[in-house]
Amino acid sequence: MSALRVYVEGVGLWSPQLAGFASLRQLLAGHAPPPPPPPPRPEAAMLPPNERRRAPESVRLAVEVASQAVAMSGRDGSTLACVFASSHGDQAITDYMCASLARAAAELSPIRFHNSVHNAPVGYWTIANGCHAPSTAVAAQRASFGAGLLEAATQVLAGQCPVLLVCSDTEGYGPLREVTGCTQSFGCALLLAPGAGPATLARLELQLGPAPATSALDEPLAGWSAANPAAASLPLLALLASADGRCHIAAGASLGLQLDLTGIDPLESVA
């Protein structure tokens, strides 16, 4: 397979330690003091107040990072095709549903059931934006970020249009936490485009091949990556913070992606 080339225009990021991509850049640059911690919950300010109050954390997390990436790109969210990836969906709601079905199935909350489906975050996002562009929900266990990135890059090149990629997972809850090993929430988003423009941050080339060993990370990024499958994106996010380099991520059980990233000078992108 020949390399797929796309351009990154926006980045979103949220974790209990990082409020956005600027915080990651500050951390990796070794600036003191460290970046301030984010709010206890993702703000997801673009959701209407009523929706924001009842939205579960899985929705707030995905919407928060999507909003950051779109705002950085300067694009109109209502026009963007999107790919939302998650390994486990909303683990707190899944735990609640399993417990309710075992105890008293008739008491199962219809609203929580509604929010349990894997594409709930993308539904909230598209409705809040009035977006009628195509949307896709992807799950590939711990390779969900790589699978989502491959899907989004393919859509960018096939349609010659920008695509929003979001990957997020919430902290595990109840017995599920022991199974998934997901000990904290993490979400990220990338706005990908088919060509360079005024908002371009970097050129990204993807080469699909057999699953290689994933790229190593220094602490604390290595610890965060182990704590959440969506944080498999951290090698690429670290390259974006430094604007150059190569990393490898999983895209499936037996497939991997080699990612080559080159920073773009703003003058070059508009030449």
Brief digest:
A hairpin with a 4-residue loop joins strand 7 and strand 8. 38% of the residues lie in helices and 22% in strands. With 271 residues, it is an alpha+beta fold.
What does this structure look like?
With 271 residues, the protein is of the alpha+beta class. It has one domain (8-197): 3-Layer(aba) Sandwich (Peroxisomal Thiolase, Chain A, domain 1), CATH 3.40.47.10. It contains 11 helices and 8 strands. It has helices at residues 21-28, 49-54, 57-73, 91-103, 110-116, 120-129, 144-159, 175-180, 221-227, 234-242, 266-269; strands spanning 4-14, 81-85, 135-138, 163-169, 186-193, 202-210, 244-250, 255-263. A hairpin with a 4-residue loop joins strand 7 (244-250) and strand 8. Helix 3 crosses helix 6. It is globular and about 60 Å long. The two termini are 30 Å apart. The mean pLDDT is 91.
SSE layout:
Layout: E1 4-14, H1 21-28, H2 49-54, H3 57-73, E2 81-85, H4 91-103, H5 110-116, H6 120-129, E3 135-138, H7 144-159, E4 163-169, H8 175-180, E5 186-193, E6 202-210, H9 221-227, H10 234-242, E7 244-250, E8 255-263, H11 266-269
Parallel strand pairs: 2-3, 2-4
Antiparallel strand pairs: 1-5, 1-6, 4-5, 6-8, 7-8
Keywords:
globular; alpha+beta; 8-stranded mixed β-sheet; 8 strands; Peroxisomal Thiolase, Chain A, domain 1; 271 residues
H and E string: EHHHEHHHEHEHEEHHEEH
Domain module tally: 1
CATH topological fold name: Peroxisomal Thiolase, Chain A, domain 1
Please state the average pLDDT score. Answer: 91
Going by CATH, the architecture would be 3-Layer(aba) Sandwich
Determine Rg (CA atoms, Å): 18 Å
CATH superfamily: Thiolase/Chalcone synthase
Strand order of the largest sheet: 3-2-4-5-1-6-8-7
Number of helical regions: 11
Q: Runs with pLDDT <50, length 5+?
A: none
- Please state the overall shape, judged from the principal axes of the Cα atoms: globular
Compute the number of strand runs: 8
The multimeric state of the shown protein is: single chain
Class by helix and strand content? alpha+beta
Distance between the termini: 30 Å
The CATH C-level name is Alpha Beta
Beta-strand portion reads 15-25%
Quick one: biggest sheet?
8 strands, mixed
The percent range for helix content is 25-40%
